[in-house]
Amino acid sequence: RMADEELEERIIRVKQDWGRRLFIPGHHYQKDEVIQFADARGDSLKLAQLSATQHDAEAIVFCGVHFMAETADLLTREDQHVFLPDMRAGCSMADMADIRQTERAWEQLTALFGDTILPLTYVNSTAAIKSFVGEHGGATVTSSNAADMVTWAFTQKPRLLFLPDQHLGRNTACDLGIPLEKMAVWDPVQEELVGSGVMDEVQVILWKGHCSVHENFTTVNVDHIRAEYPDMKIIVHPECSREVVEASDISGSTNAIIQSIEQSPPGSAWAIGTEMNLVNRIIQKHPDKHILSLNPKMCPCLTMNRIDLPHLTWALESLAEGHPPNRIKVEEQVAGPARIALNRMLDHA
Ligand code: 13P
Ligand code: SF4
């Protein structure tokens, strides 16, 4: 790998030449070597909102994963082009709900429940899923507004289908006081609905998807922290399982995690259940606090990590040379309803 300093200089050169015509959003889970060049860093909601306000930007080089770049494309003007430095930077959770599976699920679920279901999708989903949701009256949600959006969904229909993260869906519904017996899980592979209560009384249908990073935090990790550091507070992302969230002290979105730790007094002790790059940055930023990853192995999002210094350099230089790579463009047929789903959320946020 070429010397990092050389790559850094080349990135700085393009950034200087392009000025405000170039915007680089960076998700909090990105590597340090990349996030240092981000014009804004944030969680998925903040980045979606910010992309929509970059009126001078001709090019948006998204340091995040594919669905985030799609969202940026959906919220920006036709003449603003979005690029992803590495096309392999996908999201395993978003890939767990494909549009064909969703259409088949919808057919079977509406045969069972009639016109009583509203679909909601976590922004961590493909544009095609957002489009499906928008067409059927639903909206997107993020981890920071899921409770508000689920509450809104129940003003529209008595049941909801929550895609694609069963954990965020279950944790949010539990926080709103919905009992577990009134939730069921749709298995897109077996094409069956699995629940412990009376099916007619089901209020929340959870798509059987999950995040392969947050599934690595377990109750064994929680027990270990409790035994080893009894004064430590445990804070986890709601993409963790219900058992882990229940065993922890606080659950919150990326932003809520950052804020909780920032607002805690010096000397506070925290174990954090979220992605490794963010945990490491929080540790470095707070030398006066005792902070650990809830899972001592640390948990990277491997697809996020595919965006690295060489890929960012290549993307920016190709752009500057007039042959920009990896444009993310959602086709118009899909984009219209997907935008409706996003805007229903942004109107609430
Ligand atoms: P937020 O940025 O909405 O907290 O989501 C976390 C995540 O998994 C992003 O992919
Ligand atoms: Fe997807 Fe999980 Fe990675 Fe977020 S952390 S991009 S949800 S795999």
UniProtKB/TrEMBL annotation:
Similarity-based family: Belongs to the quinolinate synthase family. Type 3 subfamily.
Cofactor note (record): Binds 1 [4Fe-4S] cluster per subunit.
Catalytic activity: iminosuccinate + dihydroxyacetone phosphate = quinolinate + phosphate + 2 H2O + H(+)
Annotated binding of iminosuccinate, by residue: H27, S44, Y122, V123, N124, S143, H237, P238, E239, T254
Stated name of the protein: Quinolinate synthase
EC number: 2.5.1.72
Pfam families attached to this UniProt entry: NadA (PF02445)
Listed InterPro entries: NadA, NadA_sf, Quinolinate_synth_A_type3
Keyword 4Fe-4S appears in the UniProt entry: yes
Compartment(s): Cytoplasm
Biological role stated in the UniProt entry: Catalyzes the condensation of iminoaspartate with dihydroxyacetone phosphate to form quinolinate.
Recorded coiled-coil stretches: none
Gene3D superfamilies, sorted: NadA-like (3.40.50.10800)
Cofactor: [4Fe-4S] cluster
Leader sequence segment: none
Keywords linked to the UniProt accession: 4Fe-4S, Cytoplasm, Iron, Iron-sulfur, Metal-binding, Pyridine nucleotide biosynthesis, Transferase
Keyword Iron attached: yes
Residues at which [4Fe-4S] cluster binds: C91, C211, C301
Pathway stated in the Swiss-Prot or TrEMBL entry: Cofactor biosynthesis; NAD(+) biosynthesis; quinolinate from iminoaspartate: step 1/1
Primary site of residence: cytoplasm
Classification via NCBIfam families: nadA, PRK09375.2-1, PRK09375.2-4
Lineage of the species this protein comes from: Bacteria, Bacillati, Bacillota, Bacilli, Bacillales
